[in-house]
Design a protein that fits this description.
The complex is a heterodimer of chains A (472) and B (283). With 472 residues, chain A is α/β, with parallel strands linked by helices. Chain A has 18 helices and 16 strands. In chain A, strands 3-2-1-4-16 form a five-stranded parallel beta sheet. In chain A, strands 6-14-7-8-9 form a five-stranded parallel beta sheet. In chain B, the strands form three sheets. A seven-stranded mixed beta sheet of chain B has the order 10-9-8-7-11-12-15, sandwiched between helices. The chains are: A alpha/beta (472), B alpha/beta (283). The structure holds flavin-adenine dinucleotide (FAD) and FE2/S2 (inorganic) cluster.
């Protein structure tokens, strides 16, 4: 007899009218009762498609089985066997296109998939609170006896994961980061209201407790080169420098005052805490009428940040239609709830400024969808004579990023792809230079946190094999 | 790390710092800069490396008090450390032996000019330096520049030392005299660099300027430092800071430098209200 299955539990959120006035986290998490009740929706199907849907293969049905018996600590351990940053992944992974997309329950009539992401987050948060009362993550076995030194470059999810895994193998790991703080996009890109920095800090502490030495303010390629690292006695190097180079549209007026790349806007607000200006010194201009060009997660983050900084009207300007918006459905929904307007099938052609060099408007064209292009999506084509001007004082360009060329340009012998991405051996993560490995956005172009973590982990194994095979 | 080993007030509101940063010192080249933060809530500001000593492991920077951060920096003393320091950043200036190079600096620009003039000098180029300042009192790096130049001319806005007028007047006169000049390097306030580039354009002399736009990361990640050079967008922090002075869109850059004037004023007023110069404030 099939049992009665409850409907998917919504996660409580801060009221949109409230939350646009603060930077606190929007989604509030499940209570233990709700989490158990949601966990009970899982039918523990034998095929377990969700495990295959997870880029790092978390044993999802197993942790859910523990969770629903109230064995939260064991559930957390179960997740951590495969994923060392569950509090982060539970918040930022696009579960709707990964594990939850293939959930068997989601295929049943009138049912939605199990809220796997929300459950992961619940378990991770429960464990964090538990550990806090026990006095923090206990340090793992020290690496005093370890001989081989490995360098990890870049402290985003790829670098953090690779460093943690290498430390667990027993290596002496030094993590080099160009900025003054650790975390990569998790620090400078994803805002506080989506990923509280305190959570990131705890994850970083965990990596430190594993024995990883972290050196900030080290721009590899400038302060030290890859060759210097080998000369310093590092046996292998992992490059996880991300895809931080912002694109601009290449339209007239883009250097006017009031035009930001999303990276600059978000870095000022998140990393430099400009939202707390003047308590913090870094300024940001709070526009009144803001247009964000692009429709990915980055665009949603920039738009929602602008609202919180006090903008009166924030518009997402996107040349395709809603169906093609690359942002997570949840983020689009959050943005709309908060009052962000979507201007779809609209393409900017020119930014207009005043005599002092400040933005006053943006000329746009209406678009319509034509034949499919190479990406399989219908190509937007301009509608003749449809030009119109949007009155704005701030424009944020969120149309994508490329791999940061700074290190790769200064590393002779490193084979790169067409977009400046590093080419690796898919099985080991090794690049064209022996002993140099890479992973994350620097290899794939902008992708996801979980994919970067998976790549970091894979490369850690590759490095381990490499060092072992040489008897070091 | 990042400890201040020497501090010297060179002129009113202009201070030189020698900081212990061995890794940066080992790699520094003329044209490189660093980004620093004074304290944990501070902003990241770029300063050009005015000198470096790989043996001692130090770099030297000169800072003028123009806003809150530079004013706060000036309150640090020997023994204090910078909260953060990263570098060397940017692409070093391409310097090779030439017949004659004219180094034109205005105001604080003479500090970043010094390592470049020295490199030209060491390579055996004839170095002619023109240095402009507001007043005699504001003139810095005089002895150092004289040591690495074959000829030095001075100008002040008020006529208190050298030529009474613009430093670019000296440049124009020199070029008009028909002397063979292979290259001009101009570093200083934007209007001065623009004026220098205008002068040399008439004579068809290659001119390199060093730009100092507003920056955040200094690694090519934010694009806040973008400048238009020859119709192309460049990121000054990685592609520069040295560019062909005849190709730089100075008007655009001047407008971009005003992006946060209002906020800078607020920060400065707040800093003053809290008691200027009191270094215990932000600790
Ligand atoms: C605003 C924004 C929102 C996003 N939202 C999501 C989301 O909701 N879900 C999701 O899954 N993904 C999201 N992403 C994508 C995700 O963040 C990235 O795919 C992921 O962070 C890539 O990780 P990484 O470790 O490869 O690189 P990064 O996170 O980019 O980290 C690279 C690090 O390397 C450092 N570095 C670069 N060059 C050097 C050098 N030469 N020397 C030393 N250090 C260097 C950088 O400073 C940086 O800290 C988002 C991205 C952005 C920008
Ligand atoms: S300062 Fe951010 S890209 Fe140059």
């Amino acid at each position: 007899m099939p049992r009665e299955i409850a409907q998917r539990h919504q996660m409580p959120k801060q009221d949109p009218r409230e939350r646009i006035r603060n930077f606190n986290e929007v989604a509030l998490g499940y209570s233990p009762e709700t989490a158990i009740s949601e966990a009970k929706r899982c039918i523990q199907c034998p095929k377990r498609p969700c495990v295959g849907g997870c880029p790092v293969g978390v044993d999802i049905p197993d942790f859910i089985a523990l969770l629903r018996e109230g064995r939260f600590g064991e559930a957390a351990k179960k997740i951590k066997e495969k994923n060392s940053l569950p509090a982060i992944c539970g918040r930022v992974c696009p579960q709707e296109t990964q594990c939850e997309a293939v959930c068997t329950l989601g295929r049943a009539k009138n049912q939605k998939p199990v809220a796997i992401g929300a459950l992961e987050r619940f378990v991770a948060d429960w464990e964090r609170r538990e550990l806090a009362t026990l006095g923090g993550n206990s340090p793992a076995a020290g690496n005093e006896g370890a001989t081989a030194k490995v360098a990890v470059v870049g402290s985003g999810p790829a670098g953090l994961t690779c460093a943690a895994e290498l430390a667990k193998f027993g290596y002496r790991v030094v993590l080099f980061e160009a900025l003054h703080e650790v975390g990569g996009v998790l620090r400078y890109g994803i805002p506080e209201f989506r990923l509280p920095k305190a959570i990131l800090d705890e994850e970083v502490q965990y990596v430190k407790n594993l024995g990883v030495e972290i050196r900030t303010n080290m721009l590899i390629g400038q302060t030290l080169t890859i060759d210097d690292l080998f000369n310093d006695g590092f046996r292998a190097v992992f490059i996880g420098t991300g895809a931080g180079l912002p694109h601009f549209l290449g339209i007239p007026g883009e250097n006017l005052n009031g035009v930001y790349s999303a990276n600059e806007y978000l870095t000022r607000s998140n990393l430099m805490k400009a939202y707390l200006f003047p308590e913090y010194d870094t300024p940001i201009k709070t526009g009144k009428r803001v247009a964000v060009v692009g429709a990915g997660n980055v665009a949603m983050d920039a738009a929602r940040t602008a609202l919180r900084l006090g903008a009166e009207k924030v518009m997402i300007v996107y040349r395709r239609s809603r169906a093609e918006m690359p942002a997570r459905a949840e983020e689009i929904e959050n943005a709309e709830e908060e009052g962000v307007e979507l201007m779809l099938l609209t393409n900017p052609v020119r930014v207009i400024g005043n005599e002092k060099g400040w933005v006053t408007g943006m000329e746009c064209m209406r678009m319509e969808l034509g034949e499919p292009d190479e990406s399989g999506r219908r190509r937007p084509v301009p509608v003749k004579g449809s030009e119109f001007t949007l009155e704005i004082d701030t424009m944020i360009s969120a149309i994508g990023t490329d791999p940061n060329p700074l290190l790769t340009k200064r590393t002779p012998g490193l084979v790169l792809g067409r977009h400046g991405n590093i080419i690796i051996d898919e099985k080991t993560g090794e690049t064209s230079i022996p002993g140099v490995f890479a992973g994350g956005d620097i290899v794939t172009g902008s992708a996801t946190v979980i994919a970067a973590m998976g790549a970091g982990k894979l490369a850690a194994r590759g490095i381990h094999e490499y060092i072992r095979s040489r008897g070091w | 790390m990042n400890e201040i080993l020497r501090k010297e007030v060179l002129a009113p509101r202009i201070t030189e710092f020698e900081v212990y940063a061995p890794e940066i010192a080992a790699k520094a080249q003329p044209g490189h800069f660093v980004i620093l933060r004074v304290h944990e809530k501070g902003e990241r500001i770029p300063l050009t490396i005015a000198d470096y000593d790989a043996v001692k492991g130090t770099i030297t920077m000169v800072s003028q008090e123009v806003g809150k951060t530079t004013s706060q920096l000036a309150t640090l003393e020997v023994g204090d450390s910078l909260a953060d320091l990263v570098g060397p950043l940017g692409t070093p200036m391409h310097i090779e032996k030439v017949g004659c190079v004219v180094c034109v600096s205005g105001g604080l620009g003479v500090a970043p000019m010094y390592p470049k003039a020295r490199r030209f000098y060491e390579l055996g180029s004839k170095v002619v330096s023109f240095i402009g300042a507001q007043t005699k009192e504001m003139l810095i790096f005089k002895e150092r520049m004289e040591k690495v130049s074959h000829h030095v001319g001075y100008s002040t806005d008020d006529g208190s030392f050298g030529h009474h007028g613009f430093v670019t007047d000296l440049l124009r006169k020199f070029l008009e005299s028909g002397k063979e000049v292979d290259e001009v390097v101009a570093i200083g306030p934007l209007p001065m660099m623009r004026a220098a580039a205008r002068v040399t354009r008439d004579f068809g002399v290659k001119t390199v300027v060093s730009l100092n736009p507003i920056m955040v990361d200094g690694t090519g990640m934010c694009g806040g430092c973008r400048v238009t050079v020859g119709g192309e967008v460049k990121f000054a922090c990685v592609d520069g800071p040295a560019f062909d002075g005849h190709k730089v869109d100075f008007e655009e850059l001047m407008a971009r430098q005003n992006r946060f004037l209002e906020e800078e004023r607020i920060a400065m007023e707040r800093f003053r209200a809290q008691g200027e110069g009191c270094k215990c404030q932000e600790r």
